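Example record for the data management plan.
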Amino acid sequence: MNQWLALIQSKWLEHWVTWAFFGGYLVLTWVAAWVAKRVMKGVITRLTARSQTALDDRLVEVSTRPVGAAVLAVGLRLSLETLQTGIPSLAEGGRYATQFGWAQQIVLALLILAVTRLVNALMKAGADWYLHELAGNSRATWDKELLPLIKRVLSLVIYFIGISIILDECFGLEITALITTAGVASLAVALAAQETLSNMLGGLVILVDRPFRVGDLIELTDGKSGTVVEIGLRSTRIRQFDGNALVVPNKDMASSRIINYALPNERAAIRQTIGVAYGTDIEKAKRVLLDTLKAHPEVLEDPAPGVWFTTFNASSLDLFMSAWVESYNDRFRVMDELNVAILRAFRENRIEIPYPQRDVHVHLPEGNRVTVEKTGA
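Corresponding structural encoding:
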């Protein structure tokens, strides 16, 4: 009897010690999670505050709670292993082995879920940082519309991967059929929304490459031009000079050749060819034209305006002029003012701007010749 009592007492003492270790592990786990949060909020936050970007601060902020949850899950997993070692009935083949095994798998699932939540939080923090710090400085609306959609899609993908791992590793469920079904469904959606996806990918190219921005004056390959007023999720809207809106799909904008008058800066050139009549003093004409360009207050000195004699045309001697203004928005107004000033200066200096003409020689029978000169073309 005393031997049985001593045996029961020893097992009870052993179980009590095991449960005490289990409780101690839980307390240490809670303390470790609290310390991890304090370190991330205190020490690491102070270190990241010294950087020039707010991205690292945001990453530390959103990862604090998931890291604490992961530490708790790891500690609970270690506590259960200690409990299993000290109590034989919880070991494999014991009376409570099945229930205890399920508890271990659930804790492992919680750990995987905590890691999945951490990855998702880091992804969202990076997207939010881009949206507010980079895209917020551009006046475009496309990235503000698409990035929330991208975040939701990536969150679904991350949690899908996490849940797939949980089903496979923790509960031994076959996930091949689930992954195959998801792949087929994704392919069906992609085929059904091919045009929309093409425009969204075209918008992504515009977002990354930045060939134009809202407010830029651009010209398309078909000769149509205007000011970009909105870069949307599927299309780009351009306000033409007549006030009408030109809506172009993003896939066409991404694959077309575009002239952007606002890049690399807003300075714009005024270039055109002016013909003077044969017999004109070409040096005088160049001087008058160059002085007229320099006299305009909005023509830049650097790059300096210039005039070049370029072509012996059929009806004129062609002078090519070039001048720069500070903004492309002033280009047409300054061109109008320069044209009026050039016409006035040519008249004052008796420099003729000819119209197209031909000399026609008519040969009659011998001894008679009639010449008709300067007839209109």
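Summary line stored alongside the record: Residues 14-192 form one domain.
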